[in-house]
């Protein structure tokens, strides 16, 4: 799964560093937060001085994770964040493989001369670190992180708090093992985390079944009014503008998982979701089977990801993004059906 030389290089960098800053991608999801906080707990147990530096706020539904309150939000406290970065012996980039995924933090990271490691499971990485550990076959960065910790002989450093974080990331990045989760290694890692006596039922309740009333109303609005079918392409899509978000008291994380709902419709194997934000349109894509939505995202929405789960963004208007999806998907779908992709 991972090259032994890279694992040894990672081990040496961690062992010879004390002040370690862990950086996930902006708008961190369960895998990004799980990996960041999982490493944070492990490094603290090893006697290091780790800090998790989020480029933007984490979603509220992940606030229960131990250590979440100790993270630094670059958007809210850039001065402290920059000071910590300048003092860092080592930077750990987790769950992203190009610096643009850190938003406004990118410019600060580019200035730094510190040693850097990258731990990620997305394909086509940029060269952004001294040690690059990229394993696209892994279900999640949390699975990969726990695998690396075991390979380095540090399993005893993983307590229940770290194990809960890593488990959360695996569950959120696989839709509770419904996609990107066919490798036996994934289940071996899960078994190892369960042996740490985590309360998996509690985690599922907190992550998947603790919705706010406003989020549930927003989901109802989406399913009733904003879900559209493209049956000839076995596809469906959703879009939401800023006014709709405001009307439903939107909080970060409220739309997490919305892109998966269309795949529950019989005959639908491709899903798209377009979310209007202040300065861009966030695009999410999911698929079943062999449909490579990462290729579609790369071609038309400056994005990428995995075959069945991808993302992108656009500076175009919401309407232009939706129209592009409707106009470009038929040609892409036909090429896929004709084995031309």
TrEMBL record:
* DDH domain: residues covered: 19-170
A Pfam family the protein falls into: DHHA1
Q: Where are the annotated coiled coils located?
A: none
Q: Which InterPro entries match?
A: DDH_dom, DHH_sf, DHHA1_dom, Oligoribo/pAp-PDE_c-di-AMP_PDE
Q: Name one GO molecular function term.
A: nucleic acid binding
Record domain DHHA1: where = 247-329
Family matches, as PANTHER family:
BIFUNCTIONAL OLIGORIBONUCLEASE AND PAP PHOSPHATASE NRNA (PTHR47618:SF1)
State what protein this is by name.
Answer: Phosphoesterase RecJ domain-containing protein
Please report the organism this UniProt entry assigns to the protein. Saccharicrinis carchari
What taxonomic classification does the UniProt entry list for its organism? Bacteria, Pseudomonadati, Bacteroidota, Bacteroidia, Marinilabiliales
């Amino acid at each position: 799964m991972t090259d032994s030389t890279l694992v040894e290089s990672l081990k040496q960098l961690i062992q010879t560093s004390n002040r370690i800053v862990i950086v996930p991608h902006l708008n961190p999801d369960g895998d990004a937060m799980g990996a960041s906080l999982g490493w944070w707990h492990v490094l603290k147990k090893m006697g290091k001085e780790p800090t998790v530096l989020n480029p933007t706020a984490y979603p509220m539904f992940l606030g229960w994770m131990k250590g979440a309150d100790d993270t630094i939000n670059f958007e809210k406290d850039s001065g402290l964040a920059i000071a910590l970065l300048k003092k860092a012996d080592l930077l750990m980039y987790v769950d992203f493989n190009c610096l643009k995924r850190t938003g406004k933090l990118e410019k600060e990271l580019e200035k730094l001369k510190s040693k850097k490691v990258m731990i990620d499971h997305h394909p086509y990485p940029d060269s952004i670190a001294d040690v690059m550990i990229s394993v696209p076959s892994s279900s999640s960065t949390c699975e990969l992180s726990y695998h690396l910790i075991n390979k380095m002989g540090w399993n005893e450093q993983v307590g229940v708090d770290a194990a809960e974080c890593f488990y959360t990331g695996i569950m959120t990045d696989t839709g509770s093992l419904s996609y990107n989760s066919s490798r036996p290694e994934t289940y071996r890692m899960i078994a190892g985390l369960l042996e740490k006596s985590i309360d998996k039922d509690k985690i599922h309740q907190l992550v998947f079944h603790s919705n706010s009333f406003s989020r549930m109303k927003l989901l109802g609005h989406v399913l009733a009014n904003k879900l559209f079918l493209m049956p000839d392409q076995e596809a469906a899509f959703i879009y939401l503008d800023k006014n709709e978000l405001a009307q439903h008291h939107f909080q970060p994380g409220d739309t997490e998982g919305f892109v998966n709902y269309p795949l529950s419709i019989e005959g639908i194997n491709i899903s798209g979701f377009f979310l209007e934000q202040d300065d861009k349109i966030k695009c999410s894509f999911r698929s079943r089977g062999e449909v490579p939505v990462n290729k579609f995202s790369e071609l038309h929405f400056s994005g990428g990801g995995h075959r069945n789960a991808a993302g992108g963004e656009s500076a175009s208007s919401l309407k232009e993004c939706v129209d592009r999806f409707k106009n470009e998907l038929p040609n892409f779908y036909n090429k896929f059906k004709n084995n031309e992709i």
